[in-house]
Design a protein that fits this description.
This protein is an all-alpha fold. It contains five helices and no strands. The termini are far apart.
């Protein structure tokens, strides 16, 4: 069976790709603390890495129900990539849960 081929449009290193994959696997296994550590370590190396920011936003929204933090990460993605429709839709989705006084 061959691996799925996709374009590495963010030109991530193999180490970054491996770490992202590990973080995603940790999320799936509900090892959120480990996933968060991996993603935050990656973010330290590149504070504008869109795939890392997207994964952090997803983790905060879906697994931690920290909608404010999820929106914050998606907004950072949109500062970097204003045309990122997926981040825009997800930000809107989680923003619905926020209550502003």
């Amino acid at each position: 069976m061959s691996e799925r081929q996709w374009r590495n449009s963010y030109q991530l290193s193999q180490e970054q790709l491996n770490s992202l994959e590990e973080a995603e696997e940790c999320m799936e296994m509900l090892d959120i603390d480990k996933a968060e550590k991996i993603l935050l370590d990656l973010l330290e190396g590149d504070s504008e890495c869109v795939p890392v920011l997207n994964n952090l936003a997803h983790m905060h929204g879906r697994y931690l129900s920290d909608f404010e933090k999820a929106v914050e990460y998606y907004e950072k993605v949109l500062e970097i990539e204003p045309d990122n429709a997926w981040a825009r839709d997800e930000r809107r989705r989680y923003a619905r849960y926020l209550t502003y006084d």
